[in-house]
Each structure stands twice: as C-alpha cells, then as structure tokens.
Amino acid sequence: MSADGSDRxxxxxxxxxxxxxxxxxxxxxxxxxxVFLARTGxxxxxxxxxxxxxxxxxxxxxxxAPVATAIATGFGVPxxxxxxxxxxxxxxxxxxxxxxxxxxPPVVGGALLLxxxxxxxxxxxxxxxAGVPLTDSLVGVVLAQTFVAAPFVVVTARAGFEAVxxxxxxxxxxxxxxxxxxxxxxxxxLARRSIAAGVVLTFxxxxxxxxxxxxxxxxxxxxxxxxxxxxxxxxxxxxxxxALVLLFVTLVVVxxxxxxxxxxxxxxx
Length: 269
Hints:
The chain has helices at residues 6-10, 16-38, 45-49, 52-85, 91-103, 106-117, 122-129, 138-162, 166-174, 179-190, 192-207, 211-216, 223-234, 236-261. By secondary structure, the protein is mainly α. It has a single domain (45-261), classed as MetI-like (MetI-like fold, Orthogonal Bundle), CATH 1.10.3720.10. Helix 4 (52-85) runs parallel beside helix 8. The two termini are 22 Å apart.
C-alpha cells in the first residue's frame, strides 16, 4: 500500500454483499429509464410537443406548480419554524396533519379536497358564484398540488431550523433584535439550504402531481393528466414526448437538491 493510502482507497471498504444488493437495486432503477428513452428514436417527439394539447398541458404544469410552491413556502416556512422552536398543546396533532398528505394516497387526498371545495359544497358553490371555480380550473390544480406538496417544504425546513443553534438566536435577541428580526436575519439565513431543498422538492412534487389533480381538476390538463389520457388512447409510445419533459424537470430537480441540500456523493470532490 502506498504512503498516501491510494491502494486502500481503491479497495472496497464495505462487504461485497452490500455492493451486490445495492447494485441490483440500482440496475432496477436504471434499466426502465434506459429502455424508455430508447423509444424516443421511433416517436415524433418534437411534432407531438408542438401539438396544442401538449403545449397547453406543459404550460399549465409550469404555471401552476410554481404558484403552488410559492403558497406552500409562504405558509409552510413559518409553520416549520414554530414546530422547530415552540412547545404547545396539540403539537403532535399538528405534526400528524402535516405528514398526513404524504402518506394518504393522492386520489384519497383529492377526494378529501372535493369534500371541501367541490362544486356542490358551500365553499365551492360560493366561489363558483364569484366566478372563481375551485374545481376543473387552474385554481383547482393549484389547490391539489399545494395539498400534496406543501408537507415537503414544512418537513425539510423544520429540519433546517432545528439544526440552527438556538444560542445564536438568543445572542441576536440580547443585541436588541425582536423575534421577527431574529428570524429574518439569523434563523432564515442559517437554514436557507434546507429551505431551498424543501422548495425544490415541493416544486417537483407539484409538477408531477396526478392523483389529487385528477380528482379535483381533470380539466384543464396538466402534464401528468395529459400523460394518462394519451396512455389510455394510444399506449406507451404516445406518452413519450410529455414524459420526456417531466423527466427533464426531474433531472433539474435532482441537480438542484444536490446543490442546495449538499447531497453528497462520497467519492466526489
């Protein structure tokens, strides 16, 4: 072995069975991507993406997902800070409600939303009379996306705030900063990487949301609902173009999460 330990770095440091089991799962992840992407050679991708229905679905997803993300962030970050710093009666219940949209099947989440904002509910009927229908509209898409995606920013931001040393906040308070100023000048900057990662994950979940959107706003189409309609009508080849757009968004999201959250690759430098 060389003095700098290079031979040791080249040798596996973990049991071989771990490499085998992990490798099998990695292949299971990678092969479907490779096989699916191989279909692009026989599919008119550009022509399909230029179709009015496809362009509308892409536009709707890229319009509603940022709005849902902004709403989730604006309300979720303060909630995350409260959960990280405060002790209050009913906190466990609040935590449960935050996590519930993550574990409830999206279709069930859509049904829950319909029970509140459906066209025949008091809220839905009132909104419809005001000219702002909450179902089968872009507003309905945003409501569905926010419901299923907001927990990501709350959970991730909370972890970031909990990692901030409370003594730094206390020091800011002794220097005359109020609670809001301390949050803005100390807590928020120190937790920004976790918050940014949560925002990115929220956007990814919103742009890919299908089940709740299908229930609340089947029309207008988003990319996931467009994929479903095209699959029912023509099979896998018909969904390749729109799926490629979603895959591209996913790759951007993965890169952003690695950038903001510092997701490590052990051998990378």
